[in-house]
Design a protein that fits this description.
Radius of gyration: 19 Å
Helix content: 10-25%
Order of helices and strands: EEEEEEEHEEEHHH
Strand content: 35-45%
Structural class: alpha+beta
Amino acid sequence: MSESDPFQTLASHIAYQNPWITVEHQDVLRPDGKPGIYGIVRFTNRAVGVLPIDDTGHVWMVGQYRRPVEAWSWEMPEGGVPYAEDLEAGALRELEEEVGIRAKTLIKVLDMDLSNSVSDETAICFVAYGLSRGTLAPEGTEVLTIKQLHFTDLLADVEAGKIRDALTVATVYRTYHLAMTNQLPAALTKKLLAHPDGD
């Protein structure tokens, strides 16, 4: 088994570019030896997601309309961090901008590739706790709604398919796994898994 690239690039050029993405068109020889094309979307920033959990096990969530899928989406706070910026500093910045919350502690729970057949976008996701009030400062392109719900309710919404955002779904399941296998601080795990209503 070879792990090398089975495509041969004959020529490439930038088909489109803006401050966030570059679309690269490639003329290639396919693995079967026939000529073909390949399109790659290259991202300027790394995607980050932060699951902020307060002292009662409630999670701060962001709701917004997502134009590519033409639908409303509930998500954890997310954004882009330039490669020149410290990753954790960027994650904390996005958290404060979107929900007006600061966090004392971040735990990295995921590092993954997104849509890796057409894109080089990576995502790094964190759990945040030790929360305090900060300054809400959404970008001019964002119209956000904020709500809180307990982690167990968020998990139920993910399992029911009510939440579809990939970073949020993956981070919620990963956080639940870490809690169930005692890989998170015990006090945080207790808050996550114990619903305040006793459900």
